[in-house]
## 1
Amino acid sequence: MQAVQNKSGTATSRFLKRLHDPSKPVLVFDGATGTSLQQMDLTAADFGGEALEGCNENLVVTRPDAVQAVHRLFLDAGCDVIETDTFGAASVVLAEYGLEDQAFELNQRAAQLAREMADQYSSETKPRFVAGSMGPTTKLPTLGHIDFDTLRDSFREQAAGLLAGDVDLFIIETCQDVLQIKAALQGVEAAFQASGQRRPLMVSVTMETTGTMLVGSDIAAVVSILEPFPIDVLGLNCATGPEQMKEHIKYLSEYSPFVVSCIPNAGLPENIGGVAHYRLTPLELKMQLMHFVEDLGVQVIGGCCGTTPAHIKALSEISSELSPAVRDVRTHHLERQQLRYEPAASSIYGATPYFQDNSFLIIGERLNASGSKKVRELLNEEDWDADADGGELRTYERISRSSKPVTGKVTEQHKQRARWIMCSEQCITVEQ
């Protein structure tokens, strides 16, 4: 994929206009859709039968009222952005329920339901936005679960449906594999090209308690790999609470050229009776994210697993009072400003900065003066161009990594500046 942003597509984006407003507003995403739906005690019939039980994405057809009720709860709590009920609505996931041929329709319908609710709550002073949610699917290409092209095409179809439903932005979230992120970005770009329209892009990765993504990538590798792409927001969500995200958020604050987001769980999940419980209170979540905003420049916050409308209300109540620490961010990707990003090459696991060591490097061959009488005599005579024992007499070249190496014959100037190094063997170093 070409890392280029269509100038006309995002110039008129309401979301980007709000995000990059000179006042630097803190935007609040909604909380846990799955947690909220679970609290409704829905039956198999609500999902469309026993075979479809647990498929939240099908509720946009069977129980659209329940889906919109969740949106309403978070909008009432004051959030700025609601996510579509499409976390698992890619065809490769829907295939587990036999719904893969309905991927486009389910995504379109989910976007329409969210659009209706966001428009109802929007005002001139507080616009509300819809983020098209695209989860990681259940297959990781790096681990060989699925081939790249199949995954990309699945994301393309999902993105096309979300575009048709009129989302304001895309959030590729809970990412566990950088190759999966690339497939999603390429799929979304293909949908943009086919439709002739563009939306802002947000990527949110998941860092495990081990300190890396599930496949082993650290946060430096994430930034290095994604820096060329036309992303508007890059951050973290899911897996852990804000405490475990602190070091990763700090790195993004220092080195990411994008707006930084943090959408944590309500703490680390605890298994109690086979059910996940989250203990982080709304007050605790608010206090920790306040630090991220005011000290690290995070501009997008919200809640993932275990976060309720009460958590989002706590964030919404303080969002207007917070001033993100100053950070330089890209606002136009055609320029691809470097900002504080440190250029690097990356493997799937980590990044290596393009750093030049300005020290000197010695390159050459040692001359065996003690083992060859002829070589010793030529050295003593300073006969640099002679042949000895069938091989050309060579010198050490002292080369700066920041300069071109010495080439050709040794000049008189080199001879005058030559420095003898005496050890068990006699060596010559030619200095630049």
Note: The chain has a mean pLDDT of 85.
## 2
Amino acid sequence: MAKLTHLTLVERCTIESMLNNSESFKAIGRKLGRHCTTISKEVRGHILFKKTGCFGHPFNDCANRRHCDYTNLCSSPKCCSKSCRNCSNCHLHCPDYFKEYCKKLSTPPYVCNGCSERMKCTLEKHIYSAVSSHNEYESVRSESRSGVSLSENELSALDSFISPLIKKGQSIHHICSNNKSEIMFSEKTIYNYVDAGLFSAINLDLPRKVRCRPRKSNHDNFKVDKGCRTGRTYKDFQKYLSSVPGCPVVQMDSVIGTKGGKVLLTIHFVKAEFMLAFLRERNTAASVFYIFEKLYETLSPEIFKKIFQVVLTDNGSEFSDPLALEMDEDNELRTRIFYCDPSAPYQKGAIENNHEFIRRILPKGTSFDNLTQEKINLMMNHINSYQRASLGNRSPYEMFRILYGQDILDALGAELISPNDINLTPELLK
């Protein structure tokens, strides 16, 4: 029996295939030479949740759907001639809605892969996918091997010891050679920390280093804190929202131009569908922190805490320093940072969808290097002035003004563009 080895993609494909054939965990374990609990943990830890219906019927998980007589609860033109049992949105408005849970999912194999009723079921599907599971595994493994293996206090202590010596003109080799008992790291690790901007000392304090041709490396992908997801997972995010009903959610992401060039930080206010974008020289955690500090200063602490109560983002290295974003200089909490699950961008689908407007103006592969923040502001003014059916034919600008007031829009430098003047093509920035 295989021990202390990770599951391969081939093994995961075997698991998926045998689950589709309704075979047990024990049978799968015997086939792969693994313990049945290994298979159980693998399946339960990598379940995809899909809200799909069945042939001729949309997703509907209401326990009363089979005997439902309601019609047009969602007031949708598409639904006016249908019974609510055949609508995927009416349950959100129904006073008698009661969610039905499939009892089969509480027992092995915990997924719908081999279920004979799957093609007739309108409930949420729990699916095990070998490819998705392996991609998530690779993402988590890669994340665990990157970044700083120190706590914030340990890093600060190391900085306070090493940086003053560097600023005296001492080389990192000299410092490490003469302080082996205090510095339990290699010279390469110390150089990496300096490169990543984690020390108060910078490369300019290392005269010989800046004269040498730098090795090719991607410091933009340097993770500041490997444990940043602890207590900030998507499950923690959902738990937080349930404890604070009505809490406004902000989603955050990056939009890449050409490799190694300037990038955008996008901030999306979900309720208003209003988006901000900021141009950055490099895709680093320090650049995100700088923007948060500027917003905190521009808006005032009171307003910032009001509109940035909770922020949901992905697992990019540029967002790997949550404490710096969450706390102000007085060590007071100003926001809460949470992360989507690995390989699950749909969990922040609102901002992903809104990026389509940016890509109309800046298609994929377009360099951002010649752009200025003024041009980015112009682009976002046009996008935010574009009316949306989801907002009752209001624009995000108008909805944001209703929710938060004109003063905040003025502080952000946002402007309303006349409907007939809106341009969502590359010609806008030429």
Note: Residues 1-59+100-145 form one domain.
## 3
Amino acid sequence: MKVCVLGLWHLGSVTAACLASVGHDVTGLDSNSGIVEKLQKAEPPVSEPGLDDLIREGINADRLRFTTNAKIAISSAEVLWVTYDTPVDENDQADVEFVFEEVLKLLSFLSIDTTVLVSSQLPVGSIRRFEDISAEKYPEKNIRFAYSPENLRLGKSLDVFLHPDRVIIGVRRQEDREILNRLLGPITDNILWMGVESAEMTKHAINAFLGMSITFINEIASICENIGADAHEVETGLKSETRIGPAAYLSPGAAFAGGTLARDIEFLKDIGSSNNLVNPLISAVRKSNDEHKKWIQRRLFAVLGGLKGKRIAVWGLTYKPGTNTLRRSLSVEMCNWLQEQGAEIAVHDPSKCELPDNWLGEVVRSKTPLEALEGACALVIATQWPEYREINVSDVENIVGQLAVFDSNRFLSDFNKSPVISYYSVGVGA
């Protein structure tokens, strides 16, 4: 099939490369010439394991190309797949108008009966809005819209896209099912079909539920820390309950960062408010998560007292392992706070991420994790890079005299066995 993928940041570059890898003829379209030029050289805008190689394979096979020319990209496409990352501000409010503007100004280039599949994160009701505008401006084109919520995970996106457990798609008509079956047939036959508004709402509901699960177990963990219980043992007990189950999203650890989960929670809050509904549970998720973000701060003060002049090592800066993005990273937020407290900060990250401009001359970037520990009285395990599990505890002991380690997710639990390390994790008392 001839497919145009619109919006070439993380979701778009992954979608384009994966569709080409299963045999589709794909054109990636973006108005940002810098992004397009890099993709033409197989340089994706976001670090994702294997993505550069997959893009290169698609280009070499002449099944994948990138352009800023909308007319060339769209006019022959059977499907326009909208994959813009919806911009989010610091309060997790999404700029949905950006996506609407980018899509609507391209509708004139579409052929008759083209299917537009939207995966950008937009509030429920957005597809109806697209349909109404399209019907008003281009009634002769019979443009059809469908919705499929994205389900990618930074660092694992190729595997998730090419081997999904299921794909959710909301459509209006049988014709859309048939064409989208052709599109996704080489990837999966497990498609969960539903109405458009139901698919839009399902995305909100999934992310809000995951956010609620995280905040619930972390509130349980905070109680455990104060009564001598181990939250991870409680987690095992919870998951043994058949009405909850072993796959439940219930692991005590760090708060969730802003972005995907927070964005959908804000969507639901806004929708509820606009319909005069009272949704106290959904509103409380964000408040609870914001409070849990302070776990590291509280622990650092409790253990070290004042932080001024004290050297703190931080392992991991990126939003997640396997990527180079710092956008909405909890580690970055924490380092900014450490700066405000007057701490000396030494950071390490395996990626080639660029440090924030305000860290210049203030934050030391270490070449190795062990180098960051030199002179440090505390270590924060901020991002769970697998490289850190290769470090021997004995090597750490040779560098430090005494060291306090703060590991929210119990990622490096072997550190708890060292006689010179005081180890702290979420859900376990001091």
Note: The longest helix spans residues 196-227.
## 4
Amino acid sequence: MTETVLLVGGGGREHAIARAVADNCALYACASNRNPGIRRLADGFETIDETDAEAVADYATAVGADLAVIGPESALAAGVADALDEAGVYAFGPRAEEARLETDKAFQREFMDENAIPGCPDYAVFDDIEAACDYIDAYDGDLAVKPVGLTGGKGVKVIGDQVTAEEAKAYLRDSDYDRVVLEERLVGEEFTVQAFVANGEIRTTPAVQDHKRAYEGDEGPNTGGMGSYTDTGLSLPFMAEGDYDAAVDVLEAVVDALPDYKGVLYGQFMLTDAGPKVVEFNARFGDPEAMNTLPVLETPFLDVLTAARDDDALPELAFSGEATVCKYAVPDGYPTDPDAGAEVAVDEESVGDALLYYASVDEREDGLYTTTSRSFAVVGRGDSIAAAEAEAEDALAAAGDRVRIRHDIGTADLVERRIEHMAELRE
């Protein structure tokens, strides 16, 4: 019997999910944008706002979906998983209450505190901006300033890194945030671990290092993510023995405290001199991290989905043992003043052995054009990070004008700087 799967979302992350399941099921998709990569893989595509829970559930019922995968956090926050479950379509994604682990940063920290989840930094929650500013003045050290709700990875300001204390206070006073979280600045190297969760079980994927800053050398404003890399195993070159397992222990503690959680649980960690600390949790695949991990997953992703739905044990995961490097192409000026309308010059043939994932592009009769968001990503694979990086760079040779790429992601120099940084912190 062929499974019918509904995919919710139209970005690069969802293109990766579509490619991971399309060969093994009847695939339908819905999103507010028509991703050409997903549209070509799907048996049907409907333009629907991802946050319109009722419309998504109606479409799932209309196409006879057996299960659904939800990509974006906005859909989870809007209760799309709830609506699908209630319509009799198993949603591989947490219900809105459990998705608060991502969508409400105050809830996230309080949850960690109440359930003794390891790796929680010092924090304080404020619904009075002036009180938050007073806390900044009084705190002995640097702080990360975080709006409570979703900001697409662009709302956090870190004192001592991105802004001064005075700039942080000005940022808060100029904002319209109702609540903010202030927490100790964590110093180290960031990494993420994504896990498949269902039926009280957890299966983890290789660690990924994402690069949020817009410009090479980790300069500029934060973005949704400019690219990322994995190594040939589960860990990363700057991680010591036991660091990956410590991160997994955190995720397992979360699942123990939320036994009904289902979907992807994404832990973003700062590897400090005292081990991994939690930067945040996400309740879905990362973007770009999904594009690193799903292409090297040899266990059929559909097998994970059906086991979750059928209340079976999740399959043990097997990976190819390849390193990956993902690099995004974004419009010039992104993220502050993006220049849309450049023709996308790459295609599936021009990237060679690399993988091409479309994100936000405008499909016209005469071709694909950039919008104001991240445009497309390429993923190189190889028997080392260096080999994967070279493949990604080769694929980007035809990227054309009016797009910007962080060419330093996955390079030997960048990776070595990460290793040296952690060595210095651990001295």
Note: Residues 243-257 form the longest helix (15 residues).
